[in-house]
Amino acid sequence: MSILGKIFSKIFPSAQAAQAPAAPTSDEVSAAAAAAGAARAAAATAAPAPMAQVDVEALLNGMAQKNPQKLNWKTSIVDLMKLLDLDSGLNERKELAKELGYTGDTSDSATMNIWLHRQVMNKLAANGGTVPADLRD
To answer: Taking burial as the number of CB atoms within 10 A of a residue's CB, which of 40, 41, 54, 69 is the most buried?
Structure first.
């Protein structure tokens, strides 16, 4: 499942039923890499079908209150991923950036992280999530 798919499955109850297929193996990726450029970019930006309406802020605030760590999910993609019990490591974030069509320098993790957070919030809002306007574009 894609990283964004994992995020959706943690926030939208119906996302479990609409899971994306498993990620291809490295051999499959290598074989298809040359031909997949434009198609992959289009697929990465295509939004899944809208999910059931969810108050994302209330849900995540509730999760944050129960979490022993002080996580600032409203501004940090790392904290958001930790709150959702997902791997928030750099490689995972780079993979999420690739899924979402990030064209910047992935070595500049601060800039990438800000962009990722905004894009995830936009995707949640576009797919049935109620997300505060100040967290979206």
So the answer is: 54
